[in-house]
Amino acid sequence: MSRPESLAPMISAEATPGSVRSPKTAELVARTLRRMVVEGQLKDGDFLPHEADLIAHFGVSRPTLREAVRVLESERLVEVRRGSRTGAKVRVPGPEIVARPAALLLALSGTTLADVMTARTSIEPPAAKLLAEHGTAEAHEELRRLVAEVPAAWEAGRLAAASAHLHRRMVELSGNATLGIIAGMLHEIGERHTAAAISGASTDNNIAKSEYTKLHKSYVRLLDLVEARKGDAAEAHWRRHMEAASAAMLRGHEKTRVRDIMD
């Protein structure tokens, strides 16, 4: 958790005191600091430069600088502990930063679980192909671990969480950042939908062994195709899997809306 030693090499010419003079000074300062995070000049866990250094560099007042930091705080890019002398710490967000607002927007718009399943069926099979054809050895190894964890999760009654996590990570491991963010946005909805479908099919919040066996075999088949680098086959298999899962999970939930399963 470090602080940059010097601001000069890190902040571009457009952020010099002479150029940060406008009615929206705080927003311009926030934009420059945001860019430093995006470009990796400030990393997760780093502290922003000392307040006095930032004030001197930008040529702004303390209230203006603090307003800029509040902008970044509202975006969840920094964490500020009130009364602390350590300053603002960078917190690089994940998909969770948009997951809740996205779920709220879907709930407000009356979106159904069928609509969400259609979206998931559209993005997951292509992600499986990408993972097979371009995924790293580390990504394939993580998928293997996730598949291997499913039996224990089923026995412990945690199949919904394990399954939803596997679906999300499979997309994220594909290497396509956009698809990964979308999968992260839909993760909580997917997990809650899976849990609702399982609880509706069984009194012990799990599914029958025959159904579980079929599910696990499908996961193993995906893993085999991914590790064999058979992209087209992996995509086709996962599309069949998602279509079958959609039919099963929507049984009894044909008209269920996102708002019905979210807090």
From TrEMBL:
Q: Which domain of life is it from?
A: Bacteria
Q: Which UniProt keywords apply?
A: DNA-binding, Transcription, Transcription regulation
| Any one GO MF annotation of this record | DNA-binding transcription factor activity
Q: Which InterPro entries match?
A: GntR_C, TF_FadR/GntR_C, Tscrpt_reg_HTH_GntR, WH-like_DNA-bd_sf, WH_DNA-bd_sf
Do you know which Pfam families this protein is assigned to?
FCD, GntR
The residue ranges of the HTH gntR-type domain are 23-93
- Name the UniProt record assigns to this protein: GntR family transcriptional regulator
Organism equals: Mycolicibacterium flavescens (Mycobacterium flavescens)
